[in-house]
From TrEMBL:
This is VMP1 protein. The chain crosses the membrane at residues 77-95, 115-138, 251-267, 273-294, 306-327, 371-392. It comes from Menura novaehollandiae (superb lyrebird). Keywords: Membrane, Transmembrane, Transmembrane helix.
Length: 406
């Protein structure tokens, strides 16, 4: 009886091994096919296949419009309420009365906040090449307010949104009366709105991983697949990058709210992994989003804001320009445009609306404007490429479905 039982166990083990080997072969073939399909999709870009890319982009746009229309129709009650509220607000906006001053104030604040929230969302999704909108917009804005505050010895220039030029107020002020806290308070609204936008931009990885875990599907997302592989090979992780990703995953999974808060409160390129981890382990939405919002819009934002304000304080800037001039041979030639730019900014700050506007443009501001234009254009191109690749993915999934039904 014992020998028969042993033989049965051995046969059962052998069958399970054969079954496992067959599954392994099938999974490896499937992985190879997915890899080839992904490479094929990545080649659908405007500079390689312009006609195909544009065709797929328009078809994907039509499909998305159809899906959004269907979703709106299913939620037509909410849509009707939103349209009624919009109609009431429009009537209040155009009807004259004592309420107009409050309407104009709310309009001004709303668009100012929406502008920075939108830039924060674009920063999280990468702006095409991953260049932060903090470097393009918020950082220069804080720097300009800082330079103006030290030059004017006041922060009593207009409330946001500022006019094309920040003008020093006419009030009499004493030298050195400006404080660091006053500058922080002046730019707090736009900085916090930008941080809130970055928190909102972290939601797609969370929802993608959560939906995949609940449905049992395997989304064709490189970051999610990397996360799955990391979980499988967690014990064998050797390189620094893998250990860092594993540390983020363990911190978020074991510590919870405070682990997410810690990851969100510091500049962290691996935070997308935290969102995927929270979604995969079904962390409650408000736990994830609340910790992310506090970390990014309050803690991290004040750290970044302090860094920019200190860096662009008057004495630090003067020391930096002096150090540039000390560079052998090319120092004076590099120092000159910076000095001209700072002098031009000082003139603009003391320019009154009834005087002549100073003419001329510094090459630093010209280069920055062209950089912004190039980055925005590349962002638009990346959207076209991404939507075209999404349509190609739809075609590949349709092909998989047809093969399974045969």
């Amino acid at each position: 009886m014992a020998e028969n039982g042993t033989d049965c166990d051995q046969r059962r083990i052998g069958m399970s091994k054969e079954q496992h080997n067959g599954n392994f072969t099938d999974s490896s073939m499937l992985s190879e096919r997915k890899r080839r399909d992904r490479e094929e999709r990545l080649n659908i870009v405007l500079w390689k296949k312009p006609l195909v890319t544009l065709q797929y982009f328009f078809l994907e746009t039509l499909i998305n419009l159809k899906e959004w229309t269907i979703k709106l129709w299913h939620r037509r009650g909410i849509l009707v309420c939103a349209l009624l509220a919009l109609a009431v607000l429009t009537a209040m906006y155009y009807i004259e009365g004592a309420h107009q001053q409050y309407v104009r104030y709310m309009e001004k604040k709303f668009f100012w906040c929406a502008y920075w929230v939108g830039l924060g969302i674009l920063s999280s999704v990468g702006l095409g090449t991953g260049l932060h909108t903090f470097l393009l917009y918020l950082g220069p804005h804080i720097a300009s307010v800082t330079l103006a505050a030290y030059e004017c010895n006041s922060v009593n220039f207009p409330e946001p949104p500022y006019p094309d030029q920040i003008i020093c107020p006419d009030e009499e002020v004493t030298e050195g009366s400006i404080s660091l806290w006053a500058i922080i308070s002046k730019v707090r609204l736009e900085a916090c709105m930008w941080g809130a936008g970055t928190a909102i931009g972290e939601l797609p990885p969370y929802f993608m991983a959560r939906a995949a875990r609940l449905s049992g599907a395997e989304p064709d997302d490189e970051e999610y697949q990397e996360f799955e592989e990391m979980l499988e090979h967690a014990e064998a992780a050797q390189d620094f990058a893998s250990r860092a990703k594993l540390a983020v995953q363990n911190l978020v999974q074991k510590v919870g709210f405070f682990g997410i808060l810690a990851c969100a409160s510091i500049p962290n390129p691996l935070f997308d992994l935290a969102g995927i981890t929270c979604g995969h382990f079904l962390v409650p939405f408000w736990t994830f989003f609340g910790a992310t919002l506090i970390g990014k819009a309050v803690i991290k934002m004040h750290i970044q804001k302090l860094f920019v304000i200190i860096t662009f304080s008057k004495h630090i800037v003067e020391q930096m320009v002096a150090l540039i001039g000390a560079i052998p041979s090319i120092g004076p030639s590099l120092q000159k445009p910076f000095q001209e730019y700072l002098e031009a900014q000082r003139i603009k700050l003391h320019h009154k609306s009834d005087g002549a506007v100073p003419q001329g443009e510094n090459w630093l501001s010209w280069m920055f404007e062209k950089l912004v234009i190039v980055m925005v254009c590349y962002f638009i191109l990346s959207i076209i490429n991404s939507m075209a690749q999404s349509y190609a993915k739809r075609l590949q999934q349709k092909m998989y479905s047809e093969e399974k039904t045969k």
